[in-house]
Amino acid sequence: MMNNENGRKVYIVDGSRTPQLKSRGKVGPFSAGDLAVAAAKPLLLRNNFPLEALDEVILGCMIPGEREANIGRVVALRLGIPQSVPAWTVQRNCASGMQSVDSAYKNIRNGDADLVLAGGVESMSHSPVLFNHTMVNWLGDFMRSRSIGQKLKTLLQLRGKHFTPVIALLHGLTDDTVGLNMGETAEIIAKKFNISRLQMDDYAKTSHHRLAAAQSAGYLDEIEVLYDKEGNFYDHDDGVRPDSSIESLAKLRPAFDKKYGKVTAGNSAQITDGAAWLILASEEAVKKYNLTVMASITDTQWAGLDPAVMGMGPVHAMTPIMQRNKLAINDIDYWEINEAFATQILGCVQAWQQDEYCQQNLKLDKAMGEIPHEKLNIDGGGVSLGHPVGASGARIILHLCKILQRTNSKQGMASLCIGGGQGGAMLIQNET
């Protein structure tokens, strides 16, 4: 991949997101389409361009609803964006939202577009529960039965095994090629880098405290309030636990390796619903519509690695960007690395400090160095906010822009690990 030297400059004009709502074991109040529409409406209303000026709409989503095939197009039409504006959906697991922004960035940089609405969404509480194949085959037999006798005979064949559900979310969070779910890959990282349960829980506690502090300080003004059909409103990320402590986290049992594990529900990202959008524009579009800009995109990178240690994806994606742009760690003012698991973040931080890992896996001569804790995920992350899979990539880019604005800083790095063994990263430049 190449940085922006070889194409037009691409600006991030504005962005918005919904609150991230924790799944509580039942279907949440909003479908993915509802979330995406609610986040985009105020964003489009406050920016001074006609909707027909959009060249395309790109939306990242891993599991859209059963009535939301090509959810990007469904949402665009629900927003009143003209039918002549094409819209499409991208899926790169945990980085679907970043992929949508990267696709928009490349299309604008290459001259194929000037103004794009890009984002991500996931309503994980709406993930489908499916019939198993035995039940599907039985239903086929029943539908083909013509007489009452045939139907009764087929009915008598029903057994308990027919009613065993297939839970799509559990399968979606499992890598079929290595037979491991995401939590099990986190346990591998904990063992590889000798990360203790105490370190994980301490990181999780800090994530919650940082989010609570950001909420109290009003640092999350990118959130648009949601209203459900009963008139209830949702105005904040509701998975936060301001009173989180090492003692309370220590009471939780391992979630994935019941006997020897360290990864728990408390030091892992929460199952969450949410959406986030960004408006990207060329310099020509910024001038034409007199748009205020937040940031520009300097460079992007995607990387592949062993799915069994997918959590290490950020260092594999960020390293080439650092090399191409001749950057040292101190040149990056703030880092937003999605918190899939506390141990995954800690593993990435340690990997860059180890000569052996950097030499063997990243083709570096020596260790990259240590990312300062006070510059990493300073307002919390997936452990406290949750990780709505399709949305997180867009959310961390948006919030990084906000951090750079409020701290009057120069540049930041956004990155995610990706189920299936990948990493994605994006270098952002403050333009305010």
Could you describe the 3D structure shown?
The protein has helices at residues 32-45, 71-78, 96-109, 133-144, 148-155, 168-172, 182-192, 197-217, 246-250, 283-288, 313-324, 342-351, 355-361, 382-385, 392-407, and strands at residues 10-17, 21-22, 56-60, 87-90, 115-123, 129-130, 166-167, 174-175, 180-181, 226-227, 233-234, 272-282, 295-304, 334-337, 411-418, 422-430. Strands 1, 2, 3, 4, 5, 12, 13, 14, 15 and 16 form a ten-stranded mixed sheet that branches. It has a two-stranded antiparallel sheet with strand order 6-7. The chain has a domain at 180-217 and 298-430: Thiolase/Chalcone synthase (Peroxisomal Thiolase, Chain A, domain 1, 3-Layer(aba) Sandwich), CATH 3.40.47. 35% of the residues lie in helices and 19% in strands. The longest helix is centred in the middle third of the chain and has 21 residues, at 197-217. With 432 residues, it is α+β, with helices and mostly antiparallel strands.
Q: Which radius of gyration do the C-alpha atoms yield?
A: 22 Å
Structural class: alpha+beta
Give the class-level CATH name of the domain at 180-217 and 298-430: Alpha Beta
CATH architectural name of the domain at 180-217 and 298-430:
3-Layer(aba) Sandwich
CATH fold-level assignment of the domain at 180-217 and 298-430? Peroxisomal Thiolase, Chain A, domain 1
How large is the count of helical segments? Answer: 15
Strand content: 15-25%
**Secondary structure tally: strands:** 16
The rough form would be described as globular
The biggest sheet amounts to: 10 strands, mixed
CATH superfamily of the domain at 180-217 and 298-430: Thiolase/Chalcone synthase
